[in-house]
Amino acid sequence: MGAEREHEPVLLVVGLLTGCPEAVAWVEQRLGQAFGPVLAKGGPFAFTESDYYARTMGQGLAFRFFAFQNLIRPEWLGPIKRYTNRLETTYAVHAQHGELPGGHLLRPINLDPGYLHHSKWIMATTKDQSHRVYLGEGIYADPMLHFVRGRWQPWPWTYPNYRRADYLELFATLRSLYLEQRKRCAQRFWN
Q: How many structural domains comprise the chain?
């Protein structure tokens, strides 16, 4: 029998997909209020791999990523996803009332939180699939990437955009930043 132990802290990364560049500052401010200072940003990365979101989100979509200075516990991923779902709804309601850009869209923003560990990138989702692990309250953990032989590798189910060289380069940079943060914060985090 193995000994039970706490998981080390992980880096919170939130992906933002939107066709409304004006929404980025609003999202960043709300995420910063909830999760603390932004450690790093990535993007915009044009989202050209699919038209899955075109009907509800429009055209010209791009992903941006925000990584946060404050490391988190992995088990917080479910509550964080539920929070970002509420942010999506709040933004859409304000946009439909003309208070924010994107009111002509059903879904002006899409937020995908996840955590980065030195060996994996796990994203939260509300959609079940055979490889996803249920976290509770309608949220699943989706393994997107794993770190093998010095680089990020996709799984067979990894979304096409997460296979791109520009994404993998960003996640390599975030991994390096995470390793530095982990050294500085690990003892303080668990005490």
A: 1
Tens of pLDDT, residue by residue over 135-169, are: 999 999 999 999 999 999 999 999 999 999 999 99
Phi-psi region of 100 (alpha: psi -120 to 50; beta: other; left: phi over 0): beta
In a domain, 16, yes or no: yes
The secondary element (H helix, E strand) that includes residue 90 is helix 77-96
- Cβ pair 125, 100 in contact under 8 A: no
Q: Which residues of the chain have pLDDT under 50?
A: 189-191
**Residue 78 lies inside a defined structural domain of this protein:** yes
- What value, to the nearest 5°, has the Cα angle with vertex 111 and ends 19 and 159? 85
The candidate with the shortest Cα–Cα distance to 66, out of 80, 53, 76, 55, is 80
